[in-house]
Design goal:
two-stranded antiparallel ribbon; single chain; Cysteine-rich small domain-containing protein; Zf-like; mainly alpha
């Protein structure tokens, strides 16, 4: 039985590679996959330990994602798009923590 494709699979808006970028390639992709530059700055970064990627924290407390290819894989568009609601909720919670009065 054929598995139904996601709406974004095979669409140009879900994948592009910028080989003219002065930082290309910024990550080594597994198994010769092409690098997806769409999420050059990963929107999942702000989720901290809940991002789902391959990160580590430096002694300074900075999150280091240099070994992570999650946002750069062709198959990850759906995962990231589905995470935007979680990102919005996380940001709203942080705002409430900083200003509990809501002003």
């Amino acid at each position: 039985m054929d598995q139904e494709k996601e709406y974004w699979e095979g669409k140009s808006f879900a994948f592009f590679t910028n080989k003219a970028c002065e930082y290309y390639p910024c990550h080594t992709m597994p198994d010769g996959e092409e690098l997806n530059c769409l999420f050059c700055y990963c929107p999942l970064y702000m989720l901290g330990r809940e991002c789902g990627g391959n990160y580590r924290y430096l002694p300074s407390g900075i999150k280091d994602c240099s070994n992570c290819t999650l946002p750069h894989q062709r198959k990850s568009y759906g995962y990231i798009a589905k995470s935007f609601q979680r990102i919005a909720q996380t940001m709203a919670e942080r705002e409430r923590e900083q200003d509990p009065s809501g002003t």
